[in-house]
Amino acid sequence: MIETNGQAGLVERAREGDAEAFGTLVRRYQGAAYAIALERLPQRHDCDDVVQEAFVAAWCRLGQLRDPALFGAWFRRIVVSECLMWARWHRSSMPAMSADVVAETLIAPVHGSAGGGPEGNLALHRIRRAVEELPPPYRTALLLHSLSGFSYGEIAEFLEGPVTTVKGRIQQGRGATAPR
C-alpha cells in the first residue's frame, strides 16, 4: 500500500509551498491519473491535457484536503471532475473511445511488443476489441494496474474500495482481454 505517513508528509510540505514535494506526488500519481482519464476520454492528447489540469487544480486546492493521508482518493475525484468538465465543453466533437493505447499496454508484457507481424496485429486487434467491451469497473481497474504500476492495495485505496474487489476485476479483465 501507499505509505500514508510519507504521503501525508509530502502533502504537508507541498501545502507549505514545497514544489519538489508536490513533484513527487505528481510522479507517483501521473500513471493513475492518466488511466482514469483514458477510461473517460476518447483521445490520448485529451487525457494529457486533463491530467495536467487536474494536477494544477490539486496544487491550488491542497488546502481543502482534510486528511493528507487520503491524497490519492481525493486526487482521483479531481481527475474525474476534470474529465466531466472537459466532456461538457467538447461534447459535440467527441469521437468513440479508442482502445489502441490500452491494448498496446496490455499486450506488450505478454508478447514483448505488438510488433508489425500478423500474429502481433491479430492479438492487438483482439485485445483492443475485448478492452472496449469490458464493463467500466473492470476496464478502470485493469488500466490502473497496467498504466500506473500500483499494487492491488494501492488501487483499492485510490478507488476507495476493497482489495478483493480490485483483484477480482483485474483478473476478470485480464481473462476477457487475453489473446485467443
Topology:
Elements: H1 4-15, H2 19-40, H3 44-61, H4 71-90, H5 100-111, H6 118-133, H7 136-148, H8 152-159, H9 163-177
Explained architecture:
With 180 residues, the protein is mainly α. It is 76% helix and 0% strand. The protein has nine helices and no strands. The protein has helices at residues 4-15, 19-40, 44-61, 71-90, 100-111, 118-133, 136-148, 152-159, 163-177. The longest helix has 22 residues, at 19-40. The chain is globular and about 50 Å long. It starts with a helix and ends with a helix.
Number of strands: 0
Coarse morphology: globular
Count of helical stretches: 9
Class from secondary-structure proportions? mainly alpha
**How helix-rich are the residues, as a percent range?**
over 70%
Helix and strand sequence: HHHHHHHHH
Kindly report how far apart the N and C termini lie. 33 Å
Rg measurement, Å: 17 Å
Work out the strand percent: under 5%
* Parts with pLDDT < 50 across at least 5 consecutive residues: 92-99, 107-114
> Biggest β-sheet: count, sense, barrel?
none
What is the arithmetic mean of pLDDT? Answer: 78
Key terms for this structure?
180 residues, mainly alpha, 76% helix
Would you summarize the structure shown here?
With 180 residues, this protein is mainly alpha-helical. The chain has helices at residues 4-15, 19-40, 44-61, 71-90, 100-111, 118-133, 136-148, 152-159, 163-177. Helix 1 crosses helix 2 (19-40), helix 3 packs across helix 4 (71-90) and helix 7 crosses helix 9.
